[in-house]
Amino acid sequence: MGKITVQVAVNAPIEKVWDKLNNPRHIEQWNQASPDWHCLNASNNLEVGGKLKSTMAAKDGSFSFDFEGIYDEVIPQKFIKYHMEDGRVVEISFEDKGNQILVTETFDAENQNPEEMQKEGWQAILNSFKNHVETT
């Protein structure tokens, strides 16, 4: 099982990037890989041992799934590490590049789908996040 990395440079201050990545009402706005999907609900207890939960669904009602992570490490405005129910690990780092914040996510690939498909899906969600931060 390999690791996959996706990243995006967001044109916003770190305080805004951090809030919109972690605030459940914002997660519900950006957490989808394509316009025909949406995030029905989200909750986030951003502390070690706390849980991140969201439900993503096709807008036509044909499919939905729950996503859950448990935080292992949280360094405000710098780094987040959590693991999913299947034990896979996700790390998110925030790097100040002057007037941009570089958000990098590295995650353990799952073995159900090709790695390229996984990378495209996670990158699409991260792109949706960038768009949400920069337009709201």
Automatic annotation (TrEMBL):
Give residue ranges for domain Activator of Hsp90 ATPase homologue 1/2-like C-terminal: 11-134
Question: What is the species listed in this Swiss-Prot or TrEMBL entry?
Answer: Paenimyroides ummariense
Q: What superkingdom does the record give?
A: Bacteria
Q: What is this protein called?
A: Uncharacterized conserved protein YndB, AHSA1/START domain
Its family remark reads: Belongs to the AHA1 family.
Pfam families the UniProt entry points to: AHSA1
